[in-house]
Amino acid sequence: MDQEGREAFRQQLLELREQTREAQEAAREATATVELDQARQGRLSRIDALQGQQMALERERRRQQLLTRIEGALRRIESGDFGYCFLCGDEIDRRRLKADPTLTRCPDCAE
Question: What is the dihedral of CA 25, 99, 86, 72, to 10 degrees?
């Protein structure tokens, strides 16, 4: 992959990282501890609150995984390994990388 292509993917990854971090900050309140005061809330309201908290925690876990994949892709760009399959070493199609620049495997190895 040429320098211009790597730089375009680098910019895409930096933007995705920034968007993900902004989403993390916006969601901090949703993952806060649920207060289980029975005098203030009914049983179903507490269950709904706990379910909402668990869903928010799962979204946070997925965002964290995405950030880890983004950081890995940025490191691969710096080292010159970006765009190559981890398993077979073949080049990953650019269209596939445009859809998800954090990919580490070609379609054959991904199966």
Answer: -20
Nearest to 9 by CA among 85, 87, 102: 102
pTM of the model: 0.78
Q: Is residue 96 included in any domain, yes or no? A: no
**Total domains, the chain:** 1
**92 belongs to a structural domain:** no
Residue 109 lies in a domain: no
Rg of the chain over all Cα atoms, to the nearest angstrom: 20
pLDDT of residue 60: 92
Per residue in 11-60, pLDDT (tens digit) is 999 999 999 999 988 887 666 665 655 555 566 777 887 888 888 889 99
Q: CA-to-CA distance for 91 and 41, rounded, in angstroms?
A: 56
3-state secondary structure of 45: helix
Is there a domain that residue 10 lies in?
yes
Q: Which residues constitute the domain of residue 62?
A: 3-82
